[in-house]
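2024-03-11 09:14:02 DEBUG pipeline.ingest accepted 1 chain
2024-03-11 09:14:02 DEBUG pipeline.ingest length=257
2024-03-11 09:14:03 DEBUG pipeline.predict start
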Amino acid sequence: MKLAIIQFEPEFGDVLQTIEKLKLLLKKAKKADLIVLPELANTGYNFDSREQAFDLSETINESVFLRFLKDVCRDYKFSVATGFSEKEGEKLYNSSVLVDETGVKSVYRKLHLFMNEKNIFEPGNIDLSVIDHKGIKLGMLVCFDWMFPEAWRKLALQGAELILHPSNLVLPYAQSVIPSYSLVNRVFIATVNRIGTEKELTFTGQSIITGTKGEVMATAGLSEEILMVEIDPKKAEDKMITPLNDAFKDRRTDIYE
């Protein structure tokens, strides 16, 4: 399958302008089977207040942004995973949403909130899970979830072949750790960061796609960029490190859980 990530700068607070940017970028990536966009791609990131975030956010079922993605998926016959500022009743979630030509296929809500996100969003209330999407076993995480190896391992133990990781990274650490998570879990990972500056925050770009042996398959710089690679998701079923060592079966769960 062809996997693509789009590193770009959403237009803060202006979903229609962001859609205009994405029309061109998604067209350029139309040969992909699956595309991943950054965290909070529908709103931007650095809100002044929870009230501002609430006003800018959308619900899953009534979203101009997700409806646009559904239409593009139909036109180009691909799927898109995107970061999404999600409104549900009076609550807000920092979510990742998988969309195809039929609409929303899966929603994940960020478990580990970073810095001021704790004043805006609710911690995720949807369990980590893997879905079979068009023959590929997919898991999703969002940005600061990267810090917690348990999240990656749980998805891998459930059979994830590819983990999608929309991000708005400002710390300089995650991109260097992602290859290790691919290696120890023997999965593909697509970490897509954004670029640009919002008030005091500057985002670090350097989006990265890694393979099951920890190899870097593609990496971006600090500007707008589309990365596309060909992957064989079934390679993630092979957990053998040596002919006598299985990365999962050799775990000493009698000693640690």
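2024-03-11 09:14:41 DEBUG pipeline.report The two ends are 34 Å apart (CA to CA).
2024-03-11 09:14:41 DEBUG pipeline.predict end
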